[in-house]
Sequence to fold (246 residues):
Amino acid sequence: MQPLPITDRSHLLVLTGAGVSAESGIPTFRDAGGLWEGRDVREVATWDGFAADPLRVWRFYSERRQAMADVAPNAAHRALAALEARLGDRFLLATQNIDGLHQAAGSQRVVELHGNLMRSRCSACDRAPFDDRQAYRAGVAPLCGRCRAAGKDAVLRPDVVWFGELLPPGALARVEAFGRAAGRELMFLAVGTSGLVEPAASLVDAVARLGGRTWLVNAEPPANAARFDHVALGAAGALLPTLLAA
Ligand code: BV8
Fold:
């Protein structure tokens, strides 16, 4: 695949999914051996599942928090951070991932569509989400200190977006504003995503409606492959450095 035809007028919107972190050793969701294997998604990635058994959900996310200790960004994360350094405000990275590896690789213009694994928030009050790398695997689920001070019991939750929940306020608006401002100079690159989860999976269509061109890099053809102008099958860590080369 030729490098992306990026000019000094191009605006590049990138969407990443779990596949971009696979070469860092983080399991994806829907591949063999993935995070959903042997699990009922409704039990660990919905509000109802959390309400039914908060500790079971905390065990799922605590396991993922602890696994981050041995994980580092890979060549795909670094290639995207290098491109952002070249393009500046003509670059925006929307990620479905909650692992923080894009930021660890130096990316700053990142929109976390599904939240962040290393933050918690109260399930009841409106205190701001806060950094939290703790694992909660036994005993009782963690409680909100502010609610407790007000005499109420409220359980903390991971600051992530579950199925049936709205994306973080302003996240999609920032992505859409970037696309509209770019107009026909908009280029869209999706990397490492199965294209199954909305609204991220439909960004490719929104870009096409704006007259932008679309590229996909994925290990295998995802559900929405036919909606891309260009598709490169392969590992993100192997393909992105060439694809995004100056
Ligand atoms: C929303 C939690 C509005 C965080 C996740 C009924 C009621 C309510 C909503 C819905 C409904 N029906 C549909 C919906 C919408 C729903 C949805 O899309 N459902 C689908 C499944 C049908 N979406 C939502 O609910 C979203 N909110 O719509 O709000 C609303 C609200 C109420 C009512 C109506 C509308 C919220 C979506 C967020 C869900 N949260 N997880 C976490 O634990 O991480 S989803 C989960 O899937 C992760 O967040 C993940 O990011 C996301 C997408 O998965 P991928 O990243 O694509 O990973 P996957 O494993 O699937 O694929 C990896 C790919 O990489 C593969 O293709 C593989 O080939 C490739 N690959 C592997 N290795 C490599 C590679 N590629 C390149 N290189 C490699 N080395």
